[in-house]
Amino acid sequence: MTKSVTLSVKDGKIREAVNSFLKELFNKKTIDAMLVPLAHPAGTNVVQALVTKAVFVDKADVFAPVMPVNSARLIQSITRLTTVDRKTAVVLRPCEMRALIELAKLKQVQLDKLVLIGIDCPGAYAVNNYPKFAAEKKSDDFVKAGFQWAEDTMLRTGCQICEYPYPLTADITIGMLGLDPSKQILIQANSAQGEEILSKAGMSLEIDSDLAQKRQTAITKFAGEIKERRKEFFEKTKREIGGIEKLSKVFAQCIKCQNCRQACPVCYCRECFFISPTFELDADRYLRQAEKKGALRMPSDTLLFHLTRMNHMGNSCVGCGACEEACPNDIPLLKIFQLAGSEVQELFSYVPGRSLEESLPATAFKEKEFEQIGEK
Amino acid sequence: MQEKVGAVLVIGGGVGGIRTAFDLAESGFKVYLTDRSPGIGGTLYQLETWFPDNQCELCKLLPVFNRDECSQFCLRRDLSHPNIELIPNSSVTKLTGEPGNFKATLNIKSRWVIEEKCTACGLCAGVCPVEVDDEFNRGLQKRKAIYVRNPQSVPNVYSIDHENCTKCGKCVTICPTKAIALNMPDTKRELAVGAVIVSSGSNEFDVSRIGQYGYGRYANVLTNIQLERLLANTGPTGGELLRPSDKKAPNKIAILQCVGSRDTERNYCSEVCCMYALKESIMLKKQYPDTEVTIFYMDIRAFGKDYYRYHLRAQDSGVKFARCRVSRIRENPKSKNLFLLARAEDGKSISSEYDMVVLSAAQCPSPHLSELGKILNIHTNQWGFVETPEFYPTRTSHNGIFVSGSASGPSDICETVLKSSAAACEAATVISSARHQSETKTSEHEHKAEQDEEAKIAIFVCHCGEEIGAVVDFEKTLASTKKLLNVVTVEDVGFLCQKETLEKIKRSVTKTGANRVIMAACAPYHYYRLFNDTLNEVGIDASMWQLVNFREELAWVHKDKRDLATAKAQNLLAMAVDRLRTQETLTAQVMAVTPKCLIVGGGISGLTSALFLAEQGFEVDIVERTGELGGHSRQIYFDSPQSFVKGIIEKVNNNLKIKINLNSEVIGISGNAGNYKARIKSTDGKIAETNHGAIIIATGAKDYQPTEYLYGKDKRVITQHELQKRLAEWKLDKASTVVMIQCVGSRNNAHPYCNRVCCSEAIANAIKIKEKSPDTQVFILNRDIMTYGFKEQNYTKAREAGVLFQRYEAGKEPEVNTSNRTLTVAVNDPGLPGKLEIETDLLVLSTGYVAEDNQTLAKMLSLELTADGFFKEVDTKFRPVDTIIDGIFITGLANAPRNLGEKIIEAQAAAQRTANLLSRDKIKSGRVISEVDAHRCSCCGICVEVCPFEARYLDEDNKVAVVKEILCQGCGICATACPNGAAKLRSLKDKQVFSMIDAAF
Amino acid sequence: MAETKEQFEPKIIGFLCNWCTGAASDLAGTTRAQYPPNVHPIRVMCSGTVDPVYMIKALLSGADSVMMGGCHPGDCHYVSGNYKARRRVAMLKQIFKSLGLDDNRVWARWISASEGPEFAKFMNQITEETRKQGPSSMANDWAI
Fold first, then answer.
1. Is the dihedral of CA B603, B605, B609, B611 positive or negative?
2. What is the ipTM of this complex?
3. B596 phi and psi angles, rounded to 5 deg
4. Is the N or the C terminus of chain C less surrounded, counting Cβ atoms within 10 Å?
5. What is the CATH architecture of B457-581?
6. pLDDT for B452 beyond 80
7. Residue of chain A minimizing CA distance to C68
8. Which architecture does CATH list for B204-364?
9. Shortest CA distance to B706 belongs to which of B809, B849, B589?
10. How far apart, in Å, are the Cα atoms of A275 and each of A253, A279, A284, A309?
11. Does domain B592-692+854-899 sit in CATH 3.90.380.10?
12. Do residues A79 and A187 share a domain?
């Protein structure tokens, strides 16, 4: 059962419609603050901002095709130590939302008093590609062009193969999938809190509206298609990077700057294992390591770093591609991490960010599983 | 009266003796653990697996607290505790004195091998010309006259069997350490002890006495212990099932139950054999799925906690069951196959052919028990088991002498373990005033390595004669090792385990100023303690030295590969060096203990635990929900148990150390083992806060309220409890027919467990009826009659008194109807066509127990419940009253259904386990425990979730995970789960493992 | 490398748990079961202590195979360490598979304290199979 209201879009002005909806939440005092992407005055970026005055919501541009950071990380900064003391809405893309749920399981964010507003995501360009887009087009144009994850090759790789461009957990969804957003947008309440806020904002919720059903049908159709597309993509990736020689080639350009893990929303460690005392070695150790193969690449442990990181966060990888964006040398990290990530997730029938109730595979086990491992 | 002695003599080193010894040792008493054989372990070490997981888990017997005092290895390899002295090869010859102050004389049979000198290299056995049947493998293979009981005997020292030794002297010549002394005399030893515990175990019935089964004549007729040895990895076939006659795998196996028991001569049930047979058949089916396994039985007595599920599992795995007694076995002389002749339930005779027959031999008293009984002046019963009173089943006729395990009657491992803790409890109660008086004091030495001091590593390499020297190139190994960083000396020292060598090592450590030591020698099980004590004397702490196994893991297994073995030796030393370089001195965390116990539940179990704890000197708070003590036991209407229960209640009421809180409930618990804080709320709304070191859950269970068989609808349908009440007042005059139905509300889908007590209760009631009114017809409709152990006698007595037992099968339960005011019970006779219809005046339902609503309490204490809603123990066999949360114990019906005597045992066991914790002012954590690098911790909580012992929690204020050191068992699972190394396992930090890997090749 | 396959002596790191596999390795010695010296044991308390990172590190630092030995499922001194270890190995093997790395070089085996012969058999097996696979390119690539 869905509960939703239809937001009519006047004159095809999608951004305005969405912003006025968001502003209404402020005005009706359903929320006190909002983390929302605002157009940077420079015009070259859209950045998340923690807004406390409704007037700033006018600058919001939630569908602009740019995602400079995965905002789950920002919410981690805000709530890791204490919960927010007033109702704060966070407007997130689906991959940000999923990362947020993963971080909540890892106790890195506190969801209390947060209102999760998720959007159907048309994808994003690389930050440094965005100014070019922004110079010529507006986000409304981007949305009107339709959801073209497969076709728009300028989109970030992660967006092109995104499995969930719609939020899996949100109090309120700003839905556009399967609809004509230049006319109508669906505002759907997915939780008691979502319903309460929408009602308080004076919107009367419709049960199983045609629009909601239309969107649902589009999602179902998409889910079938994307599986195939991802499969093809992963097969291709395996051909490109599979095996130690190719992998070694891919990581040849790695400088071990660790930007990838810094940008990764689910790499939550305060300090990475790779800058721990375990890696503070005597000269003797370096030399002995070198002796083993005759030469030791420096900085050392490049592949160890990536494989370890994969082992640590693979189950929670939401495929946002922040790693790849952060890489100074354009190593196709998203491809590699989504490939391994999605396959380990499948192994545990785990979908990161699907539900708070689902325990992290690292903390659970079943007596009857992987029974061939360890046996003769 | 003389002062009491804080030491206990334990006779018999099987699982029972070991459990008792640990319990007493942990609670501050000295233990002499003796055994007639050259090594400990008893029957248990002949088995490799058991219910419920068909795994071993023997190590769960090891102490949880102060665990560094004890060896931390597989118990099949080593058992050492400062308070336990092992005295194998010994027998008691005299006992004088009184409870609290006995003098025991032991005769210690000489091994003809000097223990301190023997390195267990086995050269002696290699040259020994005498071959005899190996009793450990029940004659399935041979051993020499100089031998170890099993491949890794504890203690691991060779012995010469005097009877068979020809004194040829070959062993004397070859022994590299001159450890053999063929004329070494037996010795006598006098021990002052405060109590004695007989734990001498049992023997298998000599099945050759049943001539018609042909054991001893037919090669393929075996006993169940022989089958265990055939299935054992350490057995004669390496775990492969090969029948003796032709060493081929059998396709059809019959297992015969009750061989030598439940007959006229031994009218008792051997109790363990059903579970033995079930386990063996499950294992056979797993290993050889195509092999047909049939169990011939009378009743499958799977009555313990979760035993019935195991029975079902055997059925599911394809094991066949035939309810009949085999009358004889004939061998086909050519094929050596065996024909079984039997009469089935329907009276038809059966004859079928099997490749192998296994006889489930009865447990009989050890043949030495009668003599021992005389020496100790304790009574034995008609079969020769030690006689015990009904309600204190570990007491003997001699004050201060207690009995555990199967010495007092057939017992499986679980019962033995419970009885052993109970016996320990009884003994500790006698000598509680002498607690800590006879303990072995462990000396504390100063340790020299400081955290930031540079590592100086001394390495001592043992030749073990030619054992290591012949395989490893010492010159090469020493040369490369000397070059390693931080190594101050590498010495080739001959025999590392010999006294002179150890002196040399001490001097060398002092001279070189070494602060870390590597001993390259044999497996740690042999000399760990000796090496540790030696190194301690020169300031090398346990965490600062390491053993590298050059013998069992190197020389003995890579004999013809000198080059590779030498390279491996070099690498192993380099790895050890690199680990030790960054090793820190580890100190145990010490925590004060509140010597007071909280007991939740004032039933007979809780009261018994309370009483014994109080008598051992501990304070106890009892919290009882109702306004009255006694719980279920108040439903007992017969005189003797009733007065027993009253006696306990009175003693509890009069004991000043016990505080009783009636009409109260525990509403909150915080803290951990040693220091719990409980909030107790009484019905008048008052809340009290109390401190306790430990908690015993004795909250009982509920009576099953039947909905079956017109109960509640027809007044003539009652439960056994209601019947008992009527019987006590004798209100049954009018009943000329009484029908009892067993397993009402148990052994079904809703309650897939046996309630254990109902068969005995029904039979007791039936006998009562027959005594008062012999003409009353009594039918007991049953599925299997669970009169295990000596209860079998009552079963016989009931049949003799004319009680009619009628079997029914699951799924074909009796039908009960009322028409024309008559109450009719119809039941399918499995053996006959049609139904048996009985008109009855009274229908008695044997209902058992169902779990209380334990959820709230379980959640409050972080305890797990079983699928049936009872509290879950850590390990069914070895820690049956412990919960996963240290310092919280379970007893009584909250754990599983039990009868009164068994409840007493279990309650005493729980009291003893509690006393282990409460008996010291302070408890020590292990040295190797996990820790948190607070600066790195992200407070994600993964470590908390994966910790099996609830030894971690999140400090939400400081955003950091915290280790409860006392609870941490040092497994390191948290460290593995922690992604960035904020959780660390001391002694095996990531840095250390990484450097070992780097040093490996 | 000049080594031919016949001469190739694989280098293997084995993590053995203290309670079962470690005890089995000792028993193998006591019974003088012979096996090749290619496996270098590292004693850990529990198979649950074996961080997959150790296995990756070993494979990247020169090991041709790596193994983890623990108690049989249902028999863990620390209740469930081996179940957790099993999951981790499953995950590591999957990552290797996904990336086209040789997951056959990651081994696990449950060997109880009494399975001395089994331990020796396994040592033979892992050595021979690794030998068949040849030197691991992961172990020998200096540039990774």
1. positive
2. 0.97
3. -145, 145
4. N
5. 3-Layer(aba) Sandwich (3.40)
6. no
7. A374
8. 3-Layer(bba) Sandwich (3.50)
9. B849
10. 20, 6, 19, 13
11. no
12. yes
CATH architecture for the domain at B110-185: 2-Layer Sandwich (3.30)
Give the model's pLDDT for residue C2. Answer: 43
A220–chain C Cβ distance below 8 A for any pair: no
Phi, psi of A143 (to 5 degrees): -70, -40
Round the average pLDDT of chain A to a whole number and report it.
95
pLDDT in tens, B527-559: 898 999 999 999 999 999 999 999 999 999 999
The predicted structure's pLDDT at residue B829: 81
Give me the pLDDT at residue C1, please.
Answer: 41
Spatial distance between the Cα atoms of B199 and B408, rounded to a whole number of angstroms: 9
pLDDT band with cut points at 50, 70 and 90 for residue C3? very low
| Domain B110-185 identical in fold to domain B457-581 | no
Quick check: B524 pLDDT over 50?
yes
Q: What kind and span of H or E run contains B97?
A: strand B90-98
Q: Do A245 and C137 touch (CB under 8 A)?
A: yes
Asked whether residue B449 carries a pLDDT value surpassing 60, the answer given is no
Per-residue pLDDT tens over the stretch B924-962 = 999 999 999 999 999 999 999 999 999 999 999 999 999
> Both tokens of residue B625?
């929900």
What is the topology classification, in CATH, of domain B929-985?
Alpha-Beta Plaits (3.30.70)
How many domains, chain A?
A: 2
Same-domain check for residues A195 and A253: no
Give CA separation, B711 vs B705, B717, B722, B737, B838, in Å: 9, 5, 12, 18, 17
Bridge partners of A3?
A189, A207
Question: Can you read off the two tokens belonging to residue B924?
Answer: 């020590």
Closest residue on chain A to B939 (Cα)? A107
Residue with tokens 């003088």, as numbered in its chain: C32
Decide which of 3.40.50.10490, 3.30.1490.190, 3.30.420.10, 3.50.50.60 is the CATH code for B1-109+186-201+366-446. 3.50.50.60
In sequence order, what are the beta bridge partners of B669?
B678
Residues of chain B with pLDDT > 90: what percent? 88
Picking from B840, B843, B805, the residue whose alpha carbon sits closest to that of residue B824 is B840
Note the pLDDT of residue B419: 98
For domain C12-136, say whether CATH 3.40.50 is its number.
Answer: yes
Within this chain, do residues A212 and A251 fall inside the same structural domain, yes or no?
Answer: no
- Report whether pLDDT(B62) > 60: yes
**d(C-alpha A196, C-alpha A203), whole Å:** 10
Residues of C in contact with B470 (CB under 8 A): none
pLDDT at B714 over 60: yes
Confidence of residue B444 (pLDDT cuts 50, 70, 90): low
Query: Does any domain span residue A216?
Result: yes
Q: Where is average pLDDT lowest: B371-375, B831-835, C51-55?
A: B831-835
Give the 3-state secondary structure of B945-988: HHCCCCCEEEECCCCEEEECCCCCCCCCHHHHHCCCCCEEECCC
Q: How far is Cα A150 from Cα B356, in angstroms, rounded to an integer?
A: 69
Which residue segment(s) compose the domain that A162 sits in? 3-229
Indicate if the pLDDT at residue B445 is higher than 70. no
Interface contact B936-A276, CB threshold 8 A: yes
Superfamily of domain B703-850 in CATH is: FAD/NAD(P)-binding domain (3.50.50.60)
Domain ranges, ordered by start, for chain B: 1-109+186-201+366-446, 110-185, 204-364, 457-581, 592-692+854-899, 703-850, 929-985
Confidence (pLDDT) at B731: 74
- Taking contacts as CB-CB distances below 8 angstroms, the residues of chain A near C84 are 365
Q: Is A233 helix (H, G, I), strand (E, B) or coil?
A: helix
Q: Kindly determine whether residue C101 and residue A247, on different chains, have CB atoms separated by under 8 Å.
A: yes
Per-range mean pLDDT, top range of B23-27, B78-82, B711-715, C136-140: B23-27
- Scanning every residue of chain C, which has its alpha carbon at the shortest distance from the alpha carbon of A242? C100
